[in-house]
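[[Encoded backbone]]
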Amino acid sequence: MKLFKTLICAGLLSLTLFSCGGSDDIGQFTWKVRSINGAPATKEQLAELTLKFGKEQKVNGQAPCDEFRGKAVYNAEKIKFSTLYTDSQNCDEKTIQTAYLSSLEMSKTYTTTANRMVFYDGDGNITVEFEQVN
């Protein structure tokens, strides 16, 4: 009976640790944008866009015109971004930058498979697709 209780506790502990570890997995990588919903961007333009998760819920990355920063709260399947900020430099790709940042802010859930991450809005529409860099 004692062995049974020990096995049950060990199983629950490993399940808890596995579940918690999943929410941290996306923060271990730099993500490169593959597509943005509604953004007329070339693959070359998209390849320069990134997203990184830092400590204390901070996020940053490269947008077409400059770097952005903000915060994001996430678990194993849900994500919520704060308002994302840039230094507001004017550039020819401001439309793509606005589409990228607003798509991140609209994201509510995400999935990951292999080296891919996909964000979705509240209706289940894809907002941004990423590829793992490292």
Observations:
- Residues 17 and 93 are 43 Å apart (CA to CA).
- The first strand starts at residue 30 and ends at 36.
- The chain has a mean pLDDT of 82.
- The two ends are 46 Å apart (CA to CA).
